[in-house]
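Repro:
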Amino acid sequence: MAPAMRPSNWLTCSAATIVAVSLCSGDLAAAPSAGVLRSFYVAKNSAFGGWGHTIVSIEPIGPDVRVRLITIASVNDVCPDIRVVQAADRIVRPSTVQALARVRLCDMTQEIIDQALARSKTPPVNYVDYLGSQQTVVADCGGLWDLSERLSEGMLTAGTPTSAAAYEAFGTSLVPELRSAKYATAFGDVLVNELEGYTGPPAQREPLPAEVLEQDSLPLITFVAPKFPPIALSARVTGDVRLRLTVNAETGAVTQVDRLAVKPLLADAAEQAVRAWTFDPARIPRAPIDVTLRFQIRCPRN
């Protein structure tokens, strides 16, 4: 991830999956030990090649400390542009920002960072930035590898639809803040662009069902959309399934399905759907009805 524009007094270390931003007081360039850690956040990109960001924010709330976990992620691997924002808070009582950080972020120097990277043969991150309110703040990279995981442990455990909906509602309420200058140091204009127009969790999260090419001309009373089999989605298997339907002239129920042209991973889902159809008995053609079900990966709009 390309870093945001930064002033000349920034200290960076080449080691871009984690970016930590800290707010400290004191002139750290002149007296590093004088810095007092006031708040910080850790911003992490998806580590699995997909789309997503995680932010762990640590801020004082009176004598306590608030830990806020925010995730911005695709709802599935097939439709990466369908995104959802989730968030949760927990309060640590009583505590301090420094106690949760453990690492003395405001006491670090570029030399310490360089030494930490040199000691680590295979560091799991390759870019770390620390920004003070008006001064540069750095941290020992050797102590940051598990910082976001440790601070956010046990949060966003959506065991029920109700809890998941609550996390998503809270995440939606934070979108204006996510698109503000607060996180620009870590993300530049990435969040501003990627969350543009986001008004809440998507109603449709899965890829759209297969199309029935003849649907508009069929005298259907009951229609069931053919679902895309998960295994076919994972394998990116697409194509047409052609079926011949025999329909009961009195009830309109499908009594027989013959497979004319199929793909193995798609055929069962296609047949399952058409067997649930019901036709209008007054308009059923005498001959068997041929239908084509087109399975293409189509994502809903966010």
